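Teaching assistant here, posting this on the class forum so everyone can see the example we discussed in section. The complex has two components, and the goal was to see what a joint structure prediction looks like when all of them are supplied at once.
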Amino acid sequence: MTDAVDVAPVEVGPVNRRLVLAERPVGAPGLQHFRIETAAIPSPGPGELLLRTEYLSLDPYMRGRMNANAGYAEPVAIGGLMVGQTISQVTASNHPDYAVGDRVVADAGWQDWCLSNGQGLRKLDPALSHPTWALSALGMPGLTAYVGLLDIGQPKPGETVVVAAATGPVGSAVGQIAKLKGCKVIGIAGGEEKCRMAVEQLGFDACVSHHDDELPRLLAEACPDGIDIYFENTGGAAFEAALPLFNNYARMPLCGQVAWANATNLPAGYDLTPRVMRLFLHRRVRLQGFIVTDHYDTRFDAFQTDMTQWLAAGQVKVIEDIIDGLEHAPGALSGMLSGYNLGKLLVRVS
Amino acid sequence: MTDAVDVAPVEVGPVNRRLVLAERPVGAPGLQHFRIETAAIPSPGPGELLLRTEYLSLDPYMRGRMNANAGYAEPVAIGGLMVGQTISQVTASNHPDYAVGDRVVADAGWQDWCLSNGQGLRKLDPALSHPTWALSALGMPGLTAYVGLLDIGQPKPGETVVVAAATGPVGSAVGQIAKLKGCKVIGIAGGEEKCRMAVEQLGFDACVSHHDDELPRLLAEACPDGIDIYFENTGGAAFEAALPLFNNYARMPLCGQVAWANATNLPAGYDLTPRVMRLFLHRRVRLQGFIVTDHYDTRFDAFQTDMTQWLAAGQVKVIEDIIDGLEHAPGALSGMLSGYNLGKLLVRVS
């Protein structure tokens, strides 16, 4: 520990803007569910450091945290700071492990400035060509793809892998890693532009749009040998189209349900559960739900090594959708839940 | 191979009765869906042997085979012999590996006599104290329990295991093996008599009735530490009561859906799939559908060794429900699908 406090000569705004949860949304979140507050920029005490947010990551799990019952994690409190991972820069440090100018991945949330005692920070290699990749291919979405596809899906060369949200940070990594493992990869995405991008930029074998009423037929045509791995991150129409195509011994890593994120009611009509379970039984399907935070301790290092190499070799490409201004984060999150983003959604904060 | 044909001096009926599928049932099967036919008792040709059926096993999977789309196996043809495993006695043999008087497990189907070329037969040890056990604890239902609980469920001492159809041949084996592995075992069964039997005769820690409208509350009270393994062989009310109690990292081996076997429509109302999947995700559930016939090659020997020992030591008990007369098999199958049997259902044929 050091007693010296170094303050970096960066341009700082006069206040810390904080985006807090004003009200819990029922259905789709809108601007009215957030509130912007301002506070003084905090000063680091002994052992603390001050972080300035450079980029805020927006991710589907955030919608769940806005509910009173967030499922596997604590909900954001009413009036509480919205949670989120950031790329942040150390602007002052009383912590021996961090120096001014260091870049870190932090759970700083939706704000300009953040105090930290160093816990949970991950320092970025200054040599990293694209620091923002630490929030996508080299970060949480990339690890989600890596663990879900490789550890749970266990792909074998020649197998068919289907993944929805194909141009999103998880889906794009799933598809590209699956190609590296010798699989045939079919994406599902919202609209022609995304589908074209999945094939032309990411190397998917095909990609079909869930906006198309003919999705079940289109997906069946794209998967003449059935589906061996259905990587589930959306639910909804993608799941319903994929299910009948499952081969015997198919695997279904399950990490998200963004298609149902804003749902306020269960779909009316019939309970499909008996049909789903019968198919899981007859086709000997293995489904495994997983939360990526469980896997950092055991898999993050191997993932970093592999993914760094794949990125350097150009075998995995990253698509980013960066918007400017913390004040636009609420609208951007709403848009993402409707599929308006194209690639990994980030907010450039400073 | 031998040229001699030895015919055992057993009392034989003058004809072979065969129960065939007359019509595919919609909903519950009844007597009208079967037809009894008679034929001459066949004579074994070179390399063949003649089997006389002693016991016919009745199992829930048979209902599925009566449908045009039987799922993972070929349906029984209209006019075709109903399929089923039997304990049979060799009454004549032109096969070098089988002698008159040998007892075998055969896929002889619903008939008095059967020709075989020896394929798929399994000879029973004459020292086996209860030959019928080869159709229950030492046979297909026992292997189903063994593979599903141990290989898929991977029980750890102190964990809570829930299994429905608790006094049936699969459920009773699951519960008793789980007790041997140090688990707390809660059964679900139809009615007080079965529940009492599960606790008093089979050693379950508790058993609750799915006839009770309060099943969800009763099961929750019986599982104060949640559920670590839900062995799924029924679906229906048992599944719905168990699901909310799943712990993180719960396992769900899935081998049957007898509660939905006769269903003609999906349940009306709401599609619960999104809710089920959300829970699987949040609780990191692993579900694995399996068909026992996949596991004979790799697991049958170990299973036989273990189960023989458990039975000899009285650590696993077998409950059998034996009815007399092949002609009663259709009614007995219908009754089983409504839960009227108490233990492993067998038909004594001769």
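For the discussion questions: The mean pLDDT of chain B is 94. The interface with chain A takes residues 71-72, 232, 235, 239, 248, 254-257, 260, 263, 265-278, 280-291, 294 of chain B (CB under 8 Å). Think about how each of these relates to the inputs above.
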